[in-house]
Amino acid sequence: MSDFIVVAEARADAGKGASRRLRRLEGKMPAVIYGANKPAQSLTLIRKDFEHMLENEACFSSILEVQVGGESENAIIKDIQRHPAKGFPMHADFLRVRMDQAIKVNVPLHFINEEQCAGVKLEGGMIQKQATDIEIQCLPKDLPEYLEVDMLEVEMGQIVHLSDITLPEGVTSTTLEQGEEYDLTIASVVAPRAAKEEEEEVVDAEADGEGDGDSGDGAEAASSDDAGEGSED
Question: What are the chain's domains?
């Protein structure tokens, strides 16, 4: 049995008008479930209950139990459409899964030992994150809730790549499957922004100083030439 249960009703009426009525008058929201060589089915969810489930990050990388009319189906959240201004869910897509078939899912990354990171604690750097989740492929039974990225021994200037993440048995990265050139940057430890700006200011000042010296030499050369030409006259 799944840790996440979605109780839904089959929905016969379709269209934008029907969906607006659901949201405005009944506190519900439209959804759809599809996949596993079965026809798509329109659903209705109680929005408050669905929002409560979404508060748990793990639901996005877990097998859900979708209950419709006394029957249950295994599924994952494939997509959620949200209100552009208020952010609440307006529509949900569920993808049916078969327990004997591999699925592709985006799993969140949890960065650990950030404060103890060598580049931060000993060298005063800061951690830059280039990714917060990655797409993996595995059987439903092997689906991890999240993946850990250990920053403990990462030093200033070092980069954590996708290949540095330890994947559980039976789990593969869909990106790395494309080849070594797709070994993307996940995180790095860099100098603080203030320190970088100071360095840039010093470099700019030195460049300006060098530029002034060149101008002075040019002016002196021009003056000498002018003087020479004047004496010839």
Answer: 5-96 (2.40.240.10), 103-191 (2.170.120.20)
**Which residue, 127, 130, 125, is CA-closest to 112?**
127
Phi, psi of 211, rounded to the nearest 5 degrees: -65, -40
CA angle, 17 then 21 then 25, to 5°: 165
pLDDT in tens, 140-198: 999 999 999 999 999 999 999 999 999 999 999 999 999 999 999 999 999 987 445 65
Distances (CA, A) of 214 to 190, 204, 207, 219, 228: 35, 15, 11, 9, 21
Residue 1 has pLDDT above 80, yes or no: no
What is the residue-wise DSSP string for 128-149? EES-SEEEEEE-GGG--S-EEE
47 vs 14, more confident:
47
